[in-house]
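Most newcomers find our protein records easier to grasp once they have seen one. Read left to right, the backbone structure tokens trace the chain's path through space. Nothing more is needed to start thinking about how sequence determines fold. An example says more than a description, so a record of this kind follows:
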Amino acid sequence: MTRPAFATARRTELFDALTGLFLAEGFAHLTLDEIAARLRCSKSTLYTLAASKEQLVQAATVHFFRTATESVEARVAAVAGARDRIAAYLSAVGAALDPASDRFMADLDAFAPAREIYERNTRIAAHRVQELIAEGVAAGDFRDVHAAFAADLVTTVMVRIQQRVVRDNTGLDDADAYRELAAILTGGIQA
């Protein structure tokens, strides 16, 4: 049995609102009653999304990364050339993380199931960068570099950006840090 289109649209709308709330304010301090009040829905409506607050946080985290991935890939698809595709990818990742408050990132880091989702998505992003580098090497746009090493380097920096270490050490916000990473990476492997 499939869900009616309205139910799917309403669920997406609720997850969008929930994700926006969590990104702006974090989630550890919020109760289900507070979340329901903020989303202007009942607690029973929240229970249609997940069976507990912890599962709701996990589902919202998955929703955030799924939505971010779709946005990032749309930006990559809109450009041509290996250098521009990597720059678009990393810049779009930074833009997707812009709404994430320090409180959200701290809550994410402190809640193991959500942190695992974040770490899995970072690994996926690093693999995607590796693919983009390999495509650029194959096309002759980049010199013959070890794509897995370059992706590992990117992963390390991505984790530091998302953990706010780069911002604390350099003053760069996430979006600017990703733009700098893109410039350094693509400049360093240019053919």
Q: What stands out?
A: Residues 1-6 have pLDDT under 50 and may be disordered. DSSP finds ten helices and no strands in the chain.
